[in-house]
Amino acid sequence: MRYITEENLKVADSEVFEIIExxxxxxxxxxxxxASENFTSPAVMQAMGSVFTNKYAEGYPYKRYYGGCEQAxxxxxxxxxxxxxxxxxxxxxxxxxxxxxxxxxxxxxxxxAGDKILGMDLSHGGHLTHGSKPSFSGQNxxxxxxxxxxxxxxxxxxxxxxxxxxxxxxIVCGASAYAxxxxxxxxxxxxxxxxxxxxxxxxxxxxxxxAGEHQSPFPHAHVVTTTTHKTLRGPRGGxxxxxxxxxxxxxxxxxxxxxxxxxxxxxxxxKAVAFKEILDPKWxxxxxxxxxxxxxxxEVLVKxxxxxxxxxxxxxxxxxxxxxxxxxxxxxxxALGDAGITVNKNTVPGETRSPFVTSGIRIGSPALTAxxxxxxxxxxxxxxICDVLDNIEDxxxxxxxxxxxxxxxxxxxxxxxxxx
Length: 420
Ligand code: DSN
Hints:
Elements: H1 6-12, H2 14-29, E1 31-32, H3 42-48, E2 59-60, E3 63-64, H4 70-87, E4 91-93, H5 99-110, E5 116-120, H6 136-139, E6 142-146, H7 156-166, E7 170-173, H8 184-193, E8 197-201, H9 206-210, E9 223-227, E10 238-242, H10 245-259, H11 265-279, H12 282-303, E11 307-308, E12 317-321, H13 329-338, E13 341-342, E14 344-345, E15 360-364, H14 366-370, H15 375-390, H16 395-410
Parallel strand pairs: 1-13, 5-6, 5-7, 7-8, 8-9
Antiparallel strand pairs: 2-3, 4-10, 9-10, 11-12, 12-15, 14-15
Helix pairs in contact: 1-2, 3-11, 4-11, 5-10, 7-8, 12-15, 15-16
The structure holds D-serine.
């Protein structure tokens, strides 16, 4: 038995089987527009469900602490080589179980407790692990922040001024809710001006970078992390990359034995499969379409009177602000959910509400693009989003829109071989 098939699970545990079936139905019938989610290919999932889940392989390829790692060595080396080819870098560590673990490894490798880091404010689009107080990054290190200006964009001169005052050991660039291109070259100049290490977290934009549809963090950043499941469309996991051999050695030790034990070899195998898909020339078409779809989404929202942070998008997401509306991000998230559109409530620059309520929503194009949707469908969906928001209390309308969107969704399977 090579893989766990549907039949095995149905017989062994009908309760879990039914929950998974219901989740498949939810993912199929709803329109998935959470900017950080995507649909992996069946091949990626098959590798994830493979016998590699049985294997312990502490250490790194050809330097393990356990026997029987011959095949684990091959698959991890393949994943590393493909990652380096995609991003044009010299070293990659594909073992982090998540993006947060990858980021934790960077700090553990390059900082001492209490050292200063400078990252993007969470409420301006940054990430918890970029120094936010509730996260280990804000608790173990002395964290300072930069944000966006009133126009919703990073002001690099201002970042340089803050860096000069703070004198951080690491500057973190990259974001979770920032719709504009990140200028890694300029960030490196800022880092050099204060002798800081430049750390780029490209989790959100990695799929675009891989296609040349966003400026690459290489050769500018000293160290780069990403998740593998967002725009990269791979399995859930993380990765660290660098061109610097000394940093690579420190990162390897920080991940194992520093932060993690046995690597998830089945997930590493799935990362290798996803990386092969990304190396296919078709990947560029996917990444271009992700951007084109997000652009249409932003344009319709603006035309219909909604306030998009920074006025539009250069990447895969739009951040909608309701600071000037009588309803919250939480209200919008719930109403859109009733209409069959899955988004997430999100804080916005100038936030006045708590992170559980928020004044915005983040909407992304990667998952629906993976289903094969193009500008025409995004224009239609964007108008439906506006119809829901214009009539946020009208539950009957939300139900009606839900039916229409379910019909649209039924024309786009979630495992669309033409998009990988
Ligand atoms: N949770 C991810 C996101 O939605 O952007 C970040 O870790």
